[in-house]
Amino acid sequence: MSTWRDKRRAARTARRSRAAKPVRPISQRVRDHDPLDRSDLSAGFALLLAGGLGVGAVGVHALIIVALLGLNTVLEAAVPEKKDDRVEVTILSQPEPQIDPAPEPEPEPDPEPKEEAKEPEPEPEPEPEPEPEKPKPKPKPKKKPDPPPADPINEPETPPEPPKKEVRRVVGLDAQSTVEGGAGPSYAAGNTRMGVTSEKAEDAKKVEKLSPGAKGTPGAKSGTPNKVATRLPTAKKRSRAKTSGAKLRPAYPKALQRRGIEGNVKVFVTIGADGRVVSAKVIKGSGYPELDRAALETAKKQKWIPAEVDGKKVVSSESPTYRFRISDQ
Length: 329
Prior knowledge:
5 helices
């Protein structure tokens, strides 16, 4: 029984035997034959071929002419003949109508003369009453002439007022706080503490006191008067908002976690007096929109203990930071 190896071996032997067969040699006549060479055709055959082509061309033209004529006949039969639509019109002249002569107008009677209406005679106007005579104005009294000025020689001379001496303002402490001699501290002497002390101290004996209410003194008109305190100033008790319970952790995006991407997201939240988040926005992103969205959603879900001012719950704001770390997962 032959196996597949024997079959393959027999097939190779057959291919080799076919390849080893001698090739039949090509004759010289076949080698020299040129299929494009028409020199061996006879002159009679060429003339016959030309005549056949001419007859064929004439026949084709005749068929085309016959087809066109037949098509024209068919079209003429299909188009209906035009009827003569002319209409005979006869114009009849009507007799002109006779116009009756207009009747002559009757003469109008002469109008009767109208009596002219007499105008009523105007009533005599009453004579105007004589106006009473106005009283004559009283003559104004004449002004008495001013008495002549007194003789300046007899008047006593009034002494001139002495010029007011202006007190020079010196910034510093008053003379009572200056100690002369001894090893105690010495201060710049002055008569007011409103201003800037000069670089060179003044002599305490030459500093004069300012009058009360003078410019540059406390309580003066040019300055601001002192105000009386109504209560002691106290600081308000404040407390910041705190997360209610544990701080929520945002969900780590799986695609970024597989790639090993980490980041921080800072969110600004506004907390109402009831402890709910009123608004939230990212103020410092991580550079990855997926991390920013996860942090923003977590910040909106977080519950807070509201801030207080003097025991009253108020609206406040916080800026929590959410960290995304692979080691925290």
